[in-house]
Amino acid sequence: MSPGFQGRPRTAEPALPPGQYLTEDFPVLSAGPTPKVPLDTWEFVITTETGAEFRWSWTELMGLPQETATVDIHCVTRWSKLATNWQGVSLDTLLEGIDTDAHYALAHSYGGYTTNLPLDDLRGGRAWVAHTYDGSPLPAEHGGPARLLVPHLYFWKSAKWVRGVRLKTVDEPGFWETAGYHDYGDPWREQRYQGD
User: Fold this and answer.
1) Where are the domains of the chain?
2) pLDDT value at position 1?
3) pLDDT means per 10 residues in the chain (196 residues)?
4) Domain 40-189: CATH architecture, name and number where available
5) Which residues contact 3 (CB under 8 A, 6 or more apart)?
6) Closest CA to 64 of 151, 129, 147
7) Origin, by domain of life (predicted)?
8) Torsion over CA: 128, 132, 134, 139 (sign)
9) Phi and psi torsions of 94, nearest 5°
10) How far apart are CA 110 and CA 58, in angstroms?
11) Residues 138, 143, 146, 151: is their CA dihedral positive or negative?
């Protein structure tokens, strides 16, 4: 090296999971029609492995402690969006006091969509039932009135139009997982498809 040679200036490119590209917009991807769920009939239900049910109406959900999360999201179709702003209720709040021996969860959505997750991935401040995006009510095309938000996994695990979670002692693949997508979906390990 010549004295004083500094090399090329480095850019402050964000760290993205392998194979991802940065987007500023918010692409809309859905497997079927967008459900229209009236708030007066919306509910969220946690069902334990014994069949016990814990229910919240929209009004009850709004009465629970609300959290704001600024998180990066990563879609399996290779886009990433950084520093997205959400508001919702932590799954820690919803699971508090529920007695379970389950290690897995199967999220259910209005419209029939399902996705499986380890129960530990819904705890510890890692998951929310999100109803607000960027300061406004979550639009239906992005999963409103409420979606699951599990930002440390590929975004298909953040089930749109979420209506409940069934706690399970045995892992059960959901919609995309039965079609060949990875059971876990860690974007940093590129777990896009079974076998990745």
Assistant:
1) 40-189
2) 41
3) 43 80 81 86 98 98 98 95 97 97 97 96 98 96 96 97 98 96 97 91
4) Alpha-Beta Complex (3.90)
5) none
6) 129
7) Bacteria
8) positive
9) -70, -35
10) 14
11) negative
